Structures
1.
Amino acid sequence: MERVSSRTQKMVLSAILSAITVVLGITQIGFIPVGPIRATILHIPVIIGAIFGGPIVGSVVGLSFGVMSFLQAPTDPTFAPIWAIGGFREIVLIAVTAIIPRVLVGLVSAYVYKATNKIERKTSVILLFGVQIFAFLFNAYQMIDNIRNQQAYWVNIVIAVAILVLLFVITKNYQKYNMQAVVTAVAGTLTNTVLFIFFAYQFFKYDFATAFNIDVGTVKDLWLTAGVTNGLPELLVSIVLVNYISIALFAFKKRN
């Protein structure tokens, strides 16, 4: 009986979070155009599903995210040029790029959450502190490079301020945070950003170079810049939302 009940709960959770993902995708609330790619918040339901339902629920919701991303491809700033000039092979590779990283977000998040169950809160804070310091230094490197090349760097300044504010808030009030969920949010978000950009660059670098009449080196620089400018805000939003949503859901679960 308990096994059936648990299975039913996971099915309901998968359906609810997948529905939220679809609505966010259809209404475009979950996709925010920034430069050559779209920043997204659709990975957040995936991470929540992985935390509360495990790898299967996380993968199902991640699949919903990936399918929505694929269906957006013809009008997506990332894939529209490839879709317009591509054939069957390109469409298959777009599907792989859109879906596989999002399914892996659910898997990685679920196993990271389980693996960090025995990590002390202070250890989690140290891990998160290290990730944020790395992000701050990498963003600083990008800003210096943008200044040197006379490109806009105001986004880097905003990101740097956001990282410092979040770093201060978390380290000062870490006892109020669900650090296990926060570390999971970091792992899930980075999985989404890094794998998506890796697949897109590996599969379509020559297509992008042709479509925009630029060299492959420039394509690489554009993707790295987009990854930082979009990935860091996604990471910050994910940390905050996953933390408070998980705290609220755990409290609700405890009362019931």
Note: Helices lie at 2-26, 43-71, 80-85, 88-115, 121-148, 154-172, 179-212, 216-255.
2.
Amino acid sequence: MNPIPEITPQCVVALTWTLKDTLGEDLDVLDEPVEFLVGGSDLLAKIEEALQGHGPGARLNLHLEPEDAFGDYREQLVFLEPRSRFPQELEEGMTFEGLPPGSNPDAPADLLYTVTEIYPEHVVLDGNHPLAGIAIRLNLKVEAIREATEEEIGRGSAGTGFFKVQPQAPGGSLLH
């Protein structure tokens, strides 16, 4: 694949970054370049917009409000479920794709739920993205750009689902 001089839709961009909250706390640091498909589902729309027309070596500092990042925090995605529906080995921070059979029928089945609290009789599960409701600051650097393959375009991804809000791989870390 030939490198291309600037970012356009349907190209693959290799990025490094530091992701912080508005208090300056590091949420994520990407030291090694990771490839994302521009024009697919790999990146948030505001990041793709900001990247357009930039070339390798470009540095961007972005501030994203929750609605442009991981959405607002929604109380209605927090559920209290009987402890007996979950495995004996259960820890805060564990994730489940959907809730166990017999759980609240109002709970969306396609979300990733994080165990936030464990009580003797109940478990609290949160279907919000871990960064929902948080404004983020993203300092990113464009390391390289190349043409996307037909397979990547067809899949809508370069294989990195970092910014896919739901679902993440069970047992995966917060972001990647």
Note: The two ends are 26 Å apart (CA to CA).
3.
Amino acid sequence: MIPFTKAQACGNDFLIVAEDAARETDGGEPWPDLTRRLCARSTGIGADGIEFFRWTGPTSGRIRLHNADGSAAEISGNGTRCVAAWMAQALNSRPGDALQISTDAGLRVCHVNTIATSGSYTVEVTAGMGIPAFAPRTVVLANGFAISGVDVSMGNPHFVILADNPGFTIRGCNWQTLGAEICVHQNFPHQTNVEFVRIVSPTEIEIRIFERGVGPTTSSGTGSCASATAAIALHGCHSPLTVVAPGGAQTVTWDHPGAELHLTGPAALIARGEAW
């Protein structure tokens, strides 16, 4: 049996599994297979991915993320925040405490802002998300349409597209269809996450997300960061910037290009159990 905790951040849900409980060696199930099986919405527990965790120190840990389709990913901002909430409960953390989480995109330091224990154990976390890299780019689709956007790296890849309407359509195409094509476009040999951004005001944007290895999602932490990067650097928005996704709002603080970007939002522990 494999113990797990299920957590969610703005509706982006993850299973947290200790590495020791899911060993791939000695005949254990490979993590990609295990992830596909447990994350299946109808036949498994259901999640957008699994964060495989091990402690590395009294207040530090190492995570490895697999998306729902089994593919490995460098990092998830929301997944990292979910792990921070899990660590906070395990350590009986208090507001002001800092937790260090190593990812395949580097070290992320998560600061505990508030903790609520009525109902779900919910932690508001501010996470250092690294220094974003960005550059404008144009992608030509199979139908010949040229789609302009911004390549953003948050330690994982993103392509951010500006939309000028509440339906997030681009040249009459719905964002889900465009996201599916761009995600696997030949310009992105390792695939990419795709965000569609509508500017509401200089301090607020609304986004839709097509996530690599998952599909449309209610939220994305790194997607919120990438969208904010493009909006602040190239489209006249200001920090702190509220980023509203279908699953809720997060706040991005970014002083200037070349500085570390910070993401603030909630994460809640919602279930524990054991899986075969």
Note: Helices lie at 31-39, 77-91, 175-183, 221-234.
4.
Amino acid sequence: MRNIIKDGVELLANVVGFLKGYAYNVEIIKVFDNDLNLTVIFGIEIPALEERNKKREPADINHKYPLCLGPDGVYLRRCLGDLNMAIQHLDDTAFYCFRALESLKQYFGYILEISGDREQWEEMSKAIGGNREDIEPIRKLAFPARHGVPEPITDKKRKEVFLITWDIVEKFMDYRLKQYGSDFRLHPIP
């Protein structure tokens, strides 16, 4: 219900924003009935990610934040920004998750001075494990949106996209921490 209402209000806000040159953000947090009695308060959580990350500690940020600094930190900063957008925009979840992973791929192009897309994906796979095919479910869902084709996403697919993406991003962070000589890990070392 929240997403349906938000989509309608965002459309109106986007039209007004375009006409006026303004940027608006829409957040639906509560629903009231006809008598103005509060009926629902929406949370900010994504249940699958909340469950996945329930053992994370607030202090974990102390290890991750420095990875976002400096010229090579821009790739992780962009990745995290896109993941925030993926959480906020239901129908564009795969688009933003794929773009987040592309930012991490670009890190390897920057560091290794390689420009080829395939080579960057290969270097990323070698560094963090897995292979390019691991992201194929996300790519398949993302490409229609990347080319202007609107496609809805089911809750099941959205959960899958989130979990795959979060696993890859954490592996990247662990890789970067290892580069810095840190033994802190979000993922157990295989």
Note: Residues 13 and 19 are 10 Å apart (CA to CA).
